[in-house]
C-alpha cells in the first residue's frame, strides 16, 4: 500500500481502518513466518504515485532482513509483467491474503489473476479500499467508496473467499 492513498490529499475514505488491517495482516504473516510480498505501483509522471515521490513509497516498511519482497509494477495486476507467480510457486505458496488499494483496480485485478492461476485467495473486507466514484451526468449519481469496494468483491465471484475482517485470516509458513 502506497503512502499517497493513506496520507495526504489522495487518501481513500476509511484509510485508517484499511491501513490498520493491512498492518495487522502483515504482523500475523510475519508471526507465522509466512511470505510477505508488497507491490509498489510505478505511477506515471504527475500521478500521486509517481516514481520517486513521497506518495510512491510503500507505507508499511518491507522487512528485507526477514526475506520480505517488494515487487514494482506498472499495471493494476500484480502478476502481469512481474515475477510474482514464479516467486510464489518457488516458495511453495498456495494461498494468498490480498489487501490494499484500490479495490476495483489493483486489488481486484491481482485477486482475479491469483484465482485464475488456482491460488486460494482470501480477501478481508476491511483490508482494502478505494475512492468514491464521482457522478456521471446522465449516467449515475456518485457511488460511495464502500459500495465500490463491495461491488469489486462481488465481481470476483465465489472462488475468492471474502471474509469480514483481517481478524478472520490466519497464516502458515509455506
UniProtKB/TrEMBL annotation:
Keyword Hydrolase: yes
SUPFAM superfamilies: Isochorismatase-like hydrolases (SSF52499)
Domain Isochorismatase-like: 1-132
Any GO molecular function: hydrolase activity
Swiss-Prot/TrEMBL keywords: Hydrolase
Family matches, as Pfam families: Isochorismatase (PF00857)
Gene3D superfamilies, per database record: Isochorismatase-like
Protein name as annotated: Isochorismatase
